[in-house]
Specification:
Protein name: DDE Tnp4 domain-containing protein
Pfam families: Plant_tran
Shape: flat
Structural class: mainly alpha
InterPro entries: Harbinger_derived_prot (IPR006912)
Order of helices and strands: EEHHHHH
Oligomer: single chain
Distance between the termini: 15 Å
């Protein structure tokens, strides 16, 4: 795979190529799901810049639960699924998630600029991206 920026082409290494493929598939799924929630719940459609992360998380979780309840009600019954059909890769592998990032940061207009600057830090972005590339490669790279 080759990525093209303006008139230059850059060949992708296999790790980056696999990451791009996984990211594209995941992005489509998230955008589709978020679009469904936005169409159904006005609170998801409106900006949430003044809410803290905990409240946004609770609102999203509630909307997802309500959406699933509506879908099940409209389907007129419950269906039992074998969740192993939806699992990807080797189920014995585990992901390590860094839980040290605080979600307790109070959000107000004074610190929103600082939070935005922190989120958009190029160095942090590149480190997180490289960590994700390695994680995707370790999980799915040897299956090709």
């Amino acid at each position: 795979m080759i990525i093209q920026f303006s008139n230059q082409s850059f060949p992708m290494i296999p790790k980056a190529e696999l990451f791009a493929k996984c990211q594209e598939a995941t992005r489509k799924d998230v955008e589709r799901a978020f679009g469904v929630l936005q169409a159904r719940f006005a609170i998801v459609k409106n900006p949430a810049l003044t809410l803290d992360k905990t409240k946004v998380g609770k609102i999203m979780r509630a909307c997802i639960i309500l959406h699933n309840m509506i879908v099940e009600y409209e389907r007129d019954g419950y269906t039992q699924y074998n969740i192993s059909e939806f699992e990807e890769g080797d189920g014995s592998r585990s992901s390590q998630v860094d839980m040290s990032y605080s979600t307790e940061t109070p959000t107000n207009l004074d610190n929103m600029v600082g939070i935005r600057t922190h989120v958009r830090d190029r160095r942090i972005h590149e480190q997180l991206k490289n960590d994700l590339i390695e994680n995707v490669w370790n999980k799915f790279g040897d299956q090709n």
